[in-house]
Structures
1.
Amino acid sequence: MSIYTALRAGVSGLTANSSALAAISDNIVNVNTVGYKRSTVDFSALVNAQNSDTTYNAGGVLPLTRQQISLQGSLEQSRSTTDLAISGDGFFIVSPNSNQLSNGGSVLFTRAGSFTIDAHGYMVNAQGLYLQAWPVNSDGSVISSPTSLSAIEPVNISGVGGLAEASANVDINANLNSDQAAYTGAYTAGDLALGNVSAHFESSLEVYDSLGAPRTISFGFLKTGPNEWQVEVYARPDTNITGGAATGGLLATGEVLYNTDGTVQSVDTGLQNFTIDWAVSTGAAQQDLNLDLRGVAQNAKSFGVTSVTVDGVPPGDLVGLILEGDGFLTAQFSNGRARALYQIPLATFVNPNGLAPDQGGAFRTTLESGLYNINAANAGGAGRVVSGALEASNVDLAQEFTNLITTQRAYSAASRIITTADQMLEELLMVKR
């Protein structure tokens, strides 16, 4: 009887609009949830077989729920550099635990990039999901794969420190007084280092060894002719180098000749490149040093050092993380150096709307979504990773309130169908009485 099918249609209307109300409720309460994707309920008409042209059997309605995953929310600025957002297509690869994905880890995908560093050094978002990335090798290379998770690992910065860099180049700009009287006594290489002969001019500077420790080396200049100077380089204290006590810490010695205009004519090769053999007690490795004395002029003015340039740095502490081009997560250290630690990849899908929702606002693959494709940012259809920003929910609050009113009226109308059908059945029963 058509009245019974009307009852079923009314019940299906109540069920469908209840589902719509639930989806709208989720959307409204998650309007401020980072990376949230709004849910919608589409209605599909059900058709019953008709026995004749003179009667009609109501089919009702079927609710179909889906999430608008591919619709990007607005990017909002954040004060934290570890907050990440994606401008364009793609998802961060995450896991609910810190296991390697190829070794018992569970892979999920999310747009919620409110990442922070936890007590163990892992980058975890507000939902407790661990960010996954390609590690950057010491030579700056990255082993990546568009389909394999074996090269990806959880981002962890615990124990990351700025490595020391040994000094390799020293440039000196100075002046030697041309009015200085030449030394007329007997001179043997090493006399300045041992203190047997007093240098006409001496200056010291610090270089860094392989461990980043500052080491003092001195330069002694002795005029031996009108345009001739003997130069010695020696370590202080002399015990810092192997056998230094016997040689006064001598590292290099040679002659510098000048032109009549005060510029350098030539520098002995032994002064330009030499090796420092640090004593075993220092723990440092042998160190090659290039010395540039072309900036040491000879003019008729007092002795003095204008400038000294020395490379190398001591060890540094981690002071910050920044995101650079193509998703490279770079550590900044207190010694002024920076080093790329990870490259954050993005996963893309043929049909992102086919992904299934999972814990923490993340998604997992389904047959409808297809397999993932892993690419660096700005490559292979993946979007750009933005630091210091978060993707807001794609919920339009005004639209949700409109849908809320519409759903309420539709629910009331469906309930009215049941009331009317019930009254008609009551009338039918009264006929029998």
Note: The helical segments are 2-29, 191-194, 244-247, 269-272, 397-432.
2.
Amino acid sequence: MNTETHAITTKVIKKWDQALLFKILDNIQDIVMVLDADTTVVYINNAYAKILGVPVQKVLGRRLDDIEPEALALEILRSGLTTHNRRDRLASLGIDVIGSGFPLFEGEKIVGCVSIFNNISEVVHLSRELQRTKQVADYLQEQLNQREQLPLSFKEYVGRSGILRETLELAVKVARTDSTVIIRGESGVGKGVLARAIHNSSQRKDKPLIIVNCAAIPEALLESELFGYEEGAFSGAKKGGKLGKFELAHGGTIFLDEIGDMSLNMQAKLLHVLQEKELERLGSTKTVKLNIRIIAATNRDLEKMITDGTFRQDLYYRLNIVPLNLPPLRERKEDIPELADRILRQLAEGKDSELILSPQVMRILEDYDWPGNIRELQNVMEHASIICSADQIEVRHLPAYLRSLNQQSQSVEEKPLDLKEAVARFERELIVEAIEKSGNNRSFAMRQLGLSRGSFYEKLHKYNIESR
């Protein structure tokens, strides 16, 4: 021994003997384990039992490749390389550890190795929680930054139509539960708004609402986006791995939009999450338990997709517990004036004056069928508000395709013998005459005209007949 490099005080240590060496090792706070060339555990200090809760005699004399076939110490024996501060996992105990190790040589031959490590399971758990909290915070900040880019008309529901009211009343009831919900409706009807309203009215409102557009994420990336991955799970995986959207939604709600665009393979994986409330990240064998509520949405005909074999029937039944059907705008045209007014007021926020619609513009809006639904109405109002330099939006401020509809309407009105117009004028005159003859007795006028109360008042509104 080189006494200059390894100087000792002979008054304290007179002779290096085995008993003294073991006494030193047993007072080290980290676990010290020594293997021979056959991977047999030939020594473990007392810290092993204290830290891992396993008696030393249960392990001593056994082969490590039988107990922990993936242990880092076996890699040291095979490679002959020293490691420093490497993380490892004891699969037999479910414990994460970190430590260092080095081989033992006799000449050029490896005769064993020493592994020094400690339990970091609590640190790993806290690190994962911190990672999840940070990623949730990053996601929510991203959503906050994008909020102003959302269509303004989607901020809240506006409408008096019966079919919409029925859906909203059912949504209020289901929001109080944890039931899985599927929202059906055409593009642009506000499925995302309804999902947000359900979450904000639920007991999970203080937890994250994570939104995933299944149609916007390439199939190759969707699994890693939803389930997350461990470091090294695939080429290009981030260092430290990444939590998936399901884990980000833990305790809250995940909204899977356009679920009808999901492949059969991903549908099977989603079904497992729905049934078992658990998942495994890509590249991991560890099961992660989930506490989430799932809201799905689609504009696809799922029943036809089941017949065609492109949507799983078992997943359909899992999702279809509480279906919410949002009607297209063409089926609730009575809501258009209020919707348009709400959009204009939101567009005018921060400006000196508010915009109003001319009667001609309102007639065009009510006559149009709105294939793009509320989203299209919002776009039209935004277009008109940009073009308009006065306080009232006129026909000339509308997009070209709506202006052309107005020109067609005018050409029809110029025809001297328009049957629809003639019938409407005649109907209006009969109603006005019946009211006058009855002395404004509505019930009598209804009976004379043979109309129900609902039809009578609908026609009063339609023909703008004043109520006295």
Note: Residues 1-13, 147-155, 411-417 have pLDDT under 50 and may be disordered.
3.
Amino acid sequence: MLVILPGLILALILAVAGQYLSEFIGINLMGLPKSPVSAIMMAILLGILIRNTVSLPASFQPGIRFGLVRVLRLGIVLLGIRLSLVEVGEIGLRSLPVIIAVVAAALLVVTYFSRRLGLSGRLGTLIAVGTSICGATAIVATAPAIGAQDDEVSYSVACITLFGVIAMLVYPFAAHYMFYGDPFSVGLFLGTAVHETAQVAGAGLVYQQYYGDPQALDVATVTKLVRNLGMLVVIPLMSIVYHRNSAAAGSAPKWWTMIPLFVVGFAIMSLIRTVGDQGELAFGFIEAEQWSAIIGNTKMMAEICLAVAMAAVGLGTSISALKSIGVKPLAVGLFSALLVGGVSASLITLLY
């Protein structure tokens, strides 16, 4: 437990510093009653700045990783209290057409484009899967199924991280103007066009803090969790397709290992919210005011966890690590990011 403290405390300090800088810039310097500067964005940028200007001791890495994985997942689970199961189901069903189109386009077009550029089939497949579903998680799960090498996994994860972080910082503002501030469309775009679960949560929080609308974060979160479940279909499929044209060894993981536990946790929290909202007394014994306070405190804890996780995202983003990738993988990563963003924006404009 003690081994995670240095990195975790640093991420917490950056999350607090991000909030302080947000208020200092917006209120003290700009003289506005409410800061237009996102505390989440400040925490991410501070993390990136420190990671790429200061040589952090290796002792910080376990805590940074803990914040990026465990604290993030706890925050996602706690977000489930914001929505009832009915609301989750409605968002999930409405988002399915865009999710399916984005996943299919990335898998087909990115794989083809990577081969045209001369990348290995394995590397192209990893970038395609990471872009279309859930970033590094999908890449790591797919790698053994297609016999990918360690450097191919590293290159694909670096590409996803780079363009996902850029999208996380840019897309909240672009989406606001593209969809005229409609929170459902914005959230659907963020949930389908941004790669990693952490990056989607960060983009949704940035939008909430800048534009004061929590619905976009809710829609983005549910959309991304539904998109994550695409691993159940895509990873075995990519294994079959790859091995049809290759003699490389590898096997797809068991289907139940591809269901992220934080997705289950999110659903359980939504179930708790659904049951608790029934009747005058939550669960038959909690007063309405107490239940409302529990929901409010849980929401606050979720946002604190996500703020720490976003600082960890910044601390885990190494610009120097991108130098070893080469131009071609970066070109495929950029193309795939623009592709899923373009497909998502086009379909949202047409369908909603």
Note: Residues 85-116 form the longest helix (32 residues).
